[in-house]
Specification:
This protein is of the alpha/beta class and about 130 residues long. It contains 3 helices and 15 strands. Strands 1-4-7-10-13 form a 5-stranded parallel β-sheet, with helices on one face.
């Protein structure tokens, strides 16, 4: 059976996110994701459009961007260079690693997007 280490490369992950890949099997990442996001501090250092709505604990790192009319319901953690597009919806338990992108009108729930990952426009990503 494939292990998490065989499937995912932790290169480029900030130290605080590397522990999310400590699970033996990929489906066990969700439990680690739940624990990580439960402790997310609300802090906005990045660029959040004035029409975007952030509720709950949402961390937006410096260099991250949240586009117009996006809705982020925490807990959520957006790393440096992460982008959330126009009208996107992030709902609980979401981690966007550095330079991960969520496109226009895309919904993401309880998921980890690794560095450089992209969920382009009009997508749904859940429990991933």
């Amino acid at each position: 059976m494939l292990t998490t280490a065989a499937l995912f490369d932790p290169t480029g992950l900030p130290e605080e996110l590397k522990k999310l890949l400590d699970a033996e099997y990929p489906w066990e990442i969700l439990a680690l994701l739940d624990r990580f996001t439960a402790a997310v501090p609300a802090d906005v250092a990045g660029d959040v459009h004035p029409t975007a709505v952030l509720s709950g604990s949402v961390f937006v790192a410096s260099g991250a961007k949240v586009g117009p009319h996006a809705l982020i319901e925490g807990p959520a953690w957006l790393g440096p260079g992460a982008e959330v597009g126009h009208g996107a919806y992030l709902r609980g338990g979401v981690v966007l690693a550095p330079k991960a992108k969520v496109g226009h009108a895309t919904e993401v729930k309880r998921s980890l997007l690794l560095p450089g990952a992209a969920a382009p426009h009009f997508n749904y990503v859940g429990d991933s």
